[in-house]
Specification:
- By secondary structure, this protein is mainly beta.
- The protein folds into 2 domains: about 5-240, Galactose-binding domain-like (Jelly Rolls, Sandwich); about 245-355.
- Helix content is about 5%, strand content about 40%.
- The chain has helices at about 5, 10-15, 230-240, and strands at about 45, 55, 60-65, 80-90, 95-105, 115-125, 130-135, 150-155, 160-170, 180-190, 210-220, 245, 255-260, 265-270, 285, 290-295, 305, 310, 320-325, 335-340, 350-355.
- The strands form 4 sheets. It has a 7-stranded antiparallel beta sheet, with no helix packed on it.
- The longest helix has 9 residues, at about 230-240.
Length: about 350
C-alpha cells in the first residue's frame, strides 16, 4: 500500500480504517466518545463525555450519547460503539452560541505547526455548518500569544461523511506560558453574528448534529482515525489523568476503605488514584444516596451511619492519592470506617475526583 493510500481521507471513507494506527498522533482524548465515566445520559452544560465540555448561551444545546447499530458505523472495518448527538434549539440572536469543546493540555502543543482537524458528522436535515477554531489558554501567570485561531467551517449533509480542515497554529514567540495552559479545540454548531470571526460566520443554527471520530494531528493530511492511545484501557487511563470515578450499585459495596474518624462527626479517607493525575484533585462530585460509613470492626452492618455530606481535602491530595472526608454523626473518634453503599439505591452512588483543565 502506498503512503498516499495510507493517509488518504478517501481511503478510510471507502476502504476501511487502514494503517497507520500510531498511538499519540491524535491529541484529542476520547475522540470516539467511548469513555463516559460520569455516566451522563443528557447534558446542556459542563462535562459530558470524558474530556468534552459544552458551552452555550442564548439557546439550548443538548448533548446525548447515541449507540451505533452494529455494522452502521461510518468507517468500514472500525466498529465504533458510540457517537455524540448535539441538538441545538432556540438560537437566533447575535450573542447566541453553542460549542463542543476539548481542552488539550499545554499551550505548546502544535504551536507554530500546520495542523489538521478531522471528524465524521451528519445532520438531521438541511446542510448546516460546523466551524472549527483553536483557542489558546496561556495559563496562570502566562501572557501574550494569539488567542483565537479560526480554522474555517465545513458544510455537512444528512449522511455520515468525514470532514477536515487544515490550518497553521501561531507560534508562541514573545509569549510566556503559565501553568495549566491549554489549547482548546472548539467545534461551533451555532454562532450569532457577534462571533462571525471566530466561528467563520456560520450563523445561528437549530438542528441535530451527529459527530464521531474527532482527530487533531500535526500535518496537512487527515490520516486514518485512531484514538489517542490506540487501546480502550489506554484511553481510559488518559481520561483518568483528569477525572476518575468509583461507583457501585446494590447491597453493601465498598467505595473506600480505612477511613479514620477525626471526631464524632467527621471521617477522613485517602484513596489511591488509578493513574497519576495531572495535578492534585481540586474538586469532588458525588451522589450521597444510600452511602454509609460502617465500623470497620463490625461483624455485621448494625453500626452503619448515614453520610450527610462529602468534601475534598485538597491539602492532603497529591497526584497519586486523593483525600476526602464525610460528615455524619455517631462515629467514634479514631475508629476506622469504610465508606460503602447499602440497600438497593435508586441511583448509583459514586465518588468522582477532578483535576480537569
Amino acid at each position: 500500500m502506498s503512503r498516499a493510500q495510507q493517509t488518504s481521507t478517501v481511503e478510510q471513507n471507502t476502504g476501511g480504517a487502514v494503517a497507520p494506527f500510531l498511538a499519540g498522533k491524535n491529541k484529542i482524548i476520547n475522540g470516539d466518545f467511548r469513555i463516559n465515566q460520569r455516566n451522563f445520559t443528557s447534558a446542556t452544560s459542563g462535562y459530558c463525555f470524558d474530556r468534552w465540555t459544552i458551552a452555550a448561551s442564548g439557546g439550548t444545546m443538548t448533548v446525548t450519547p447515541q449507540t451505533f447499530t452494529a455494522g452502521a458505523a461510518p468507517v468500514t472495518g472500525y466498529e465504533a460503539q458510540t457517537y455524540a448527538q448535539i441538538v441545538t434549539s432556540g438560537y437566533g440572536s447575535a450573542g447566541d452560541y453553542g460549542l463542543f469543546i476539548q481542552n488539550i493540555e499545554d499551550a505548546r502543543t502544535f504551536a507554530g505547526q500546520t495542523v489538521t482537524i478531522s471528524f465524521w458528522a451528519k445532520a438531521a436535515s438541511g446542510t448546516p455548518k460546523i466551524a472549527v477554531e483553536t483557542y489558546l489558554g496561556i495559563g496562570i501567570g502566562g501572557s501574550g500569544g494569539t488567542t483565537s485561531t479560526p480554522a474555517g467551517a465545513v458544510t455537512i449533509s444528512t449522511s455520515w461523511a468525514r470532514y477536515s480542515v487544515t490550518f497553521a497554529v501561531p507560534s508562541l514567540s514573545g509569549a510566556t506560558v503559565g501553568t495549566s495552559s491549554t489549547i482548546a479545540v472548539n467545534l461551533w454548531v451555532s454562532a450569532g453574528s457577534t462571533f462571525n470571526t471566530r466561528a467563520s460566520s456560520i450563523g445561528t443554527q437549530n438542528n441535530t448534529f451527529s459527530i464521531w471520530g474527532v482527530q487533531v494531528e500535526a500535518g496537512s493530511v487527515a490520516t486514518p482515525f485512531t484514538t489517542a492511545s490506540g487501546t480502550l484501557q489506554g484511553e481510559l487511563a488518559l481520561c483518568q489523568r483528569y477525572y476518575w470515578r468509583v461507583s457501585s450499585t446494590g447491597g453493601y459495596k465498598t467505595l473506600a476503605n480505612g477511613g479514620i474518624a477525626f471526631n464524632s462527626t467527621r471521617v477522613y479517607y485517602a484513596v489511591a488514584n488509578p493513574v497519576p493525575m495531572r495535578v492534585s484533585a481540586a474538586s469532588l462530585d458525588y451522589s450521597s444516596a444510600s452511602i454509609s460509613a460502617g465500623d470497620y470492626r463490625a461483624t455485621n452492618y448494625a453500626n452503619d451511619v448515614s453520610v450527610s455530606a462529602i468534601g475534598i481535602d485538597t491539602a492532603s491530595c497529591s497526584t497519586n492519592y486523593s483525600a476526602f472526608y464525610t460528615d455524619t454523626s455517631g462515629v467514634t473518634s479514631y475508629y476506622a470506617y469504610n465508606l460503602r453503599t447499602y440497600g438497593a439505591p435508586s441511583t448509583t452512588p459514586y465518588l468522582g475526583f477532578s483535576a480537569e483543565l
